[in-house]
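Team,

Forwarding the record for the chain on the shared tracking sheet. I've put the sequence and predicted structure together so nobody has to dig through attachments.
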Amino acid sequence: MFARATVVSALVLVAGGLAGRAEAQPAATAAFPVATVHLERNATDSDYEVVFEVTGAQDGLAELTVLGPDRRTVVAFKAPDSSTLGIRGFRFESPEPSDIKAVKSAYPEGIYEFSGRTSKGAKFAGKSTLSHRVAATPTLVKPATPTATLSVRDLTLAWSPVEGVAAYSVGIKHEESNVNLTAMLPASSTSFAVPDGFLTPGKKYKLAIGAVTREGNITFVETTFTTEK
């Protein structure tokens, strides 16, 4: 599946001092710039996955823990020793079973709690709510079939509207060269104009259109198309 771009920022800076002989207070815990969990449904392959995305500050994270609503630890990362710089960003993806009951059992609805520590000792925390509600499947209008041959210029992709969505995501990928384009569009959109110059003549591309709910869950429909030579 295509990575979904998320932009959320929140950073707290705390300055501490000494008063008389009092001991220095520990640094406060800051909010993760990004700490989210969402559900993805691939309608074409009939499977599901849960995705966790975390971004720290400039310093890498030496530790990261995610607790589920039932207090189970669902993610636990720790750098092997203090000599590493840590990891600044994470994207964890579950397996992709076709059985939604298995996904719901492993990752129940509710609040997931994120906590971490950077290589320099700064603490971060965050919360994200997972819902199992997913949108209906978009229907592709252009291309209508996986065998479609399309122009590399003035190309507009189109799909039928899905009721109750918050946004649409579009992903185009040429797998051989690993060149891809992703875009998030408002809920009123039913088409996307591919920038001239992105597509190469005579190549096969993978296309994914996603219907995004207000909770951030995505229902993808995938297809392929070939560009004219």
